[in-house]
Amino acid sequence: MKRNLHRVLSIRALFESLSMLHLKKETGELRALEAAADRERSLALSMRGLALHGLDKGTESDAWLTDMTDADLLSRRRGRLQELAGRQRPAVDAAREDLLIRRRELRQAEIMLDAAAAAEEKDQVRREQKQADEWYQSRLARKKGDAAAARLRML
User: Fold this and answer.
1) The whole model's pTM is what?
2) Residue 91 falls inside a structural domain
């Protein structure tokens, strides 16, 4: 039985490791989307600043208009990346929940293994105590038998 419990514990540990890897993967994807959205935001802000700087200079070219268009496109890309990150969050939450479930199952298997080991140790102590009691009883019986035989010889 102890061997089977060790197998269950090993399997539960593997499941927990797989869940951890899945969570790391999902979290990594979410962080990558959020980082990309932040980069797009920074680029959009710098493009807007460039466009406004060109407009303040009073240049007659349409470069400022191109810069504003680029900033608008970057803002839209940022919005799309944020939307994708928002869709990724439930997957991360589900992976986190799965990891917690797997950890709980692993802990339950560990508790079962510990309980089985404690029960086995308790049985071993009982067997040893029983053997010690039987040894003392047989020793006592031999002494009584020897004493009775000695009394018979004296008669």
Assistant:
1) 0.65
2) yes
